[in-house]
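Follow-up to my earlier ticket, as requested here are the two runs.
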Amino acid sequence: MTLPQTVTAGSAFSVPTSGSGPAVLYIVGPDQALRRDVQLGNPVSIAAGDLYNAGEYLAIIVAGSSSSSGELEVTPAPHPDTLSFLATPSRVPVGLHNGINGAVYVFDAYHNLIVTPMPVSFELSGSSGPSQARTITTSHGVAWTEIDSASKQGSAKFIAQAGGIATTRVIDEVPGDPCGLTISAQPDGAKLRVQTALVRDCSGNPIPDGTIVTFTENYNGAQTTADVPIKKDIAQIDMPAYSGATISVASGVVAGNEIRWGGGR
């Protein structure tokens, strides 16, 4: 028999044979095995779709007590049919350099990874800012990129495309950490009404309601701490009006200003 050196996955081909009499052809490879009855001297036809897993195959033809063998390589189809697109994270703070990662694996119609280099385009677009686009050539079947998150909050579409096949993921771009966190205090009877200014991130996006702001009062060696959720862009609390007390504010790892009551700021 005369084997082709390579065959594209899923394609039809034939194997010429010589001699005479009946024989059996076996083709064995990755997760596939074919058996065909052969009349020696006639070509053996392998129909389209019969051999579809890419990899190295061993072909053996058996006639009575004799046999011969050869190797055959099945390569992935050259045109993409499916893109496996991994986009992380699905929720990311705004204004984060290289904060969004995208990786694309390119498969043919038979789920073989196409290892031949090909361009993959990535585009991140949304209502909160200009779109970002770039093209990456696959290496060993995968293309990978990093893209900055937008400066304004909102939902963005992350699109990957190769060979006319496109797939989309949605990225939720949310406000970052509070920026420029400040408080002020006003007397309210025997207490102080302590309130933040409007809480924003460094790009001016409002921090979501429910985000915790921590107020701390230190007086005469004692410390009082209270966690207060933001409501309608601010957080506020009533604290004891001790003369000489210091009151500070923080949210997560972000610290704000400090007030010294009755002793100047």
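Run two:
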Amino acid sequence: MLPDFLIRATIAGLGVALIAAPLGCFVVWRRMAYFGEATAHAALLGIALSLALELPIFGGTLLAALLMAYTVSQLSGRGLASDTLLGVSAHAGLAVGLVVASFLSGVRIDLMAYLFGDILAVSISDLYTIWIGVIFVLLLIYWRWSPMLVSTLNEELAYSNGINPKKEKLILTIALAVTVAVSIKVVGLLLISALLIIPAAAARNTSSTPETMVIITALVGIISAISGLQFSYFFNTPPGPSIVCVSITFFLLLSSKNIWKFR
């Protein structure tokens, strides 16, 4: 029999793997890797403000991620490139969040848990939060799958079909912010973008259709979560980084043909 904390950790890992699969594919297709990282970094400021104001951490994280995404979308194209704005937002959120956290007196803050995850400490209430977020995002992606896919492939084609690409990008941004908020306990702020990108990048080399890529990405994420937790439990390694390391192994294995072909 597995310990209760490991069962809770496994259930949490499965939820994050499922929520990251479709979003990770869109992040790879749209080349939004830096956007995911910036959203995760900005969430640290939300955590610090939530602790300072005694608000729910999930709400503060979600609000900070959404504000960052909205600010970048509004300022993009007004004299600064998107990657520059994302870089400024990411590092500003991370730096200001750490400074605000340093001023919190009387509040115990485990920064390592927020930065790299603490999946083995997941509680029942955390599981409810994670899986409510998973269901919300999966339903949202299922509802907007075709419009979001068309907008990703060709914006002009989207406009000709009566689809607003900006609206679809906003929906994707909301889903990404929710994913960041529910994934903090599992892999931490610094590794969320890795969990989004690496399984999707691994699946891309073996997929013939978008739907197949999402399914393979989910399988890679699920196996990475389970194997990473087992490895962490038996070898006493950090759980979040261990999960990411397993997904990197999948990426190298599934990309080996292309790597040897390039050489």
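The only thing I checked on run two: The chain has a mean pLDDT of 84. Let me know what else you need.
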